[in-house]
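dumping these here so i dont lose them again. two proteins, back to back, each one seq then C-alpha cells. dont judge the mess
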Amino acid sequence: MKHYPSIAAVLAALALLVGCGKPPADEKIRIAMVVKNLGNGFFDAAHNGARQAAGELKNVEIIYTGPTTPSAEGQIEIINSLISQKVNAIVISANDPNALVPIAKKAMARGIKVLSFDSGLAPEGRLMQLNPSNAELIGAKQIEMAARAAGGSGEIAILSASAQATNQNIWIGVMKKVLENPEYAGLKLVATTYGDDQSDKSYREAVGLLRSYPHLKVIISPSTVGINAASKAVVDEGLVGKVAVTGLGLPSEMAGHVKSGAVREFAIWNPIDLGYTITYAAYDFVKGDPAAKPGGSVSAGRMGKIALDANGDGAMAPPFVYDKSNVDQFSSIF
C-alpha cells in the first residue's frame, strides 16, 4: 500500500520551492525600487535614503530602476524583468494605481514582496502602502508653523487650491479643529480663500487678503502653487516682516522666499526619509516579521515604527520642515 504525503506536507514543499520571498540568513536581500521615471530629483533623493537604509541593514542590495518617461507600461515592463531576476522585494511609486495590479499580483505569486510608496498601488496589488504623511499630521504641522510665525497670537488666513480639492479640504478641516486647542487660543482664522492652483489667481487672492485684513499676521497655503504666489504678494506689497507665509511648498521654489524673509519656514515630505522608510519596511516583509501585516507595524530605523491600518496603509511622519538652515540643501533636489 502506497503512502502519500499529507496536504500540509505538499504545501510546505511548495512554500520551500517558491521561497515565500524569504532568503537564507546569509543571502543578500535584493530590493528593487521602481520609480515613476529616472532623472527625477525627488526619486533620486528617495534612492539616497534607500541606500542609507541598506547600509544600516548590512545585507541589502538596492536595485534602482524606472522608465525614462513616466508611464504604467514602462513600469510593467520593468517589473516583468525583476520577476525574472527573482528579486526579494519591489517597492514602487506607481504611475497608475490599477493598471499595475495584474503584474504586481504576478510578482507576489512568485514570492516577491510588493510594497508601494508615495503614489500607491490599489490595495489588491501590494502588501503595504507608505504615505508620506496623513491629514492629521499635515494639518497640525501647518498650524504649528503658523503659530510660531505669528508669535502665538494674531489673525491668520488660509489660501487653498480649489474649493473642490478633497485633500486640501480635509487638511483645512483638521487645521480648524487643531485651532480649537487651548494652546492656539490666541490665533484667529479670519478667512479661507481659493486660488484654484493657478499662480495668477492665487496671487490676486493673496493680495486681496493682505489689503482686506490690515492686521493679518500669517497666510497659510496648503498648496505649492499658493504658497509661492502668497510669498510673492507679501514681497510686492512691502509687508515682509509684518506678514509671514507658511504651508506646503517645494524647496526649489521656496528658497528665494526664505531668503527674502517672506517665509520663515514651510513643510513638505522629505524624499530621503521616504526611500529610507520603505526600504526598512520591505526588509521586514521579506524577513517574515510577524508584525509586518495589515493592522500591524513595520520597523523603520531612525523613523521609528510605522503603524499599518487594516488596508496596509501607513503614514511616515509629519511633513518635514524647511528653513534657512536646510532649504539650499534640498532646493537642488526638488
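---- next one ----
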Amino acid sequence: MPGAAAAVTAGGESRVPGSLRVIGRAFRTLWSNGKARIGLIIIALMVLVAIFAPLIANHSPTATTFQPYQNPNGSNWFGTTGNGQDVFSQMVYGARVSLLVGLVSGAVATIVAVTIGLIAGYRPGPVDEGLSFLTNLVLVIPGLPLMIILAAYLQSHSVWTIILVVAFTSWATGARVIRSQATTLRTRDFITSAQFSGERLHRVVFREILPNMTSLVAASFFAAATAAVMAEASLEFLGLGDPNTVSWGTILYYAQQQNSVLTGQWLLVFAPGLAIALLATAFTLVNFGVDALSNPRLREK
C-alpha cells in the first residue's frame, strides 16, 4: 500500500508539472504573438474594470439624481442620459454584463459544438448524417433573425435568457470545423489502438481525439464569444433584453429612444459602441495567437 500510494503520488506529481508546462507553453506562444498580446491586455483591463466597478464608478449606474442631457463635466465625465443617469458609471458597470454574456455564451456554444462535432466525426453513418443535418440546418438559418424570434417569444428577457439564445445560435460553425478534424483523426493509428484495447466511446473521443484539437476548440470559443458580444448588443439595442439591466447594449437602446445624437449627446452613442467594438476586436486578436498554437508558420519570430 505505501508503495502504491507513493506511485500514485509520484504519478500525480509527474502529471501536474506536465500540465502546467503545457499551459505555460501555450500562454508564452500567445504572448509572443503581438496581436494576441494586445487582445489579452485589452481583455484583462476590461475584466479588471468589471471586477472593481464599485471602486471605479463614482456614481450609481441606476441613480436618476442628475440633470438630464448634461454634457461631460467634472462630476459626470461622460455626461448624463435623458433620465438623469451618469453615463460613465453605466459604462463601467456595463462591462460586467457584456463580458458575462460573451464568455458564458462562448463557453456554452463551444461545449455544444465540441460534443456534437466529436460524436459526428467519430461515428460515421446514421449518427453522423443526423448530426450533420442538424448542423447544416442551423447554419443556413440567418443567425440574427433567429435570435430576434427566440428572444421575442421567450417570456423572460433576463441576461441568462440572452446567453441561452446567443449560445443556441452560435455553435454550428464550430461543430462543423471540429467534426471535419475528428473525421481525419479517427483513422489514425493511436485511435485504432485505443479501439482494439477496448476503450469506451466517451474515453476515445474525449481523451484521445479532443486533446489533439485544442487550438480548434480555443478558436471556436473566441469566435463564439466575439459573436455573442455583438449579438447581445444587437438584441439589447432592439429592446429585446431586460431594460433594467445596465449593459453597453441597453445604453445604446436608450440613446436611440432619447434621440441622443439629435440632442448633442453623441458620447452616449460613441462610448458604448467603441467599447463593444474594442471587446470584439480583442477576442479576434487573441484568435490570431490561437492559430499560431496549431500552425507554427504563423508564429512571430
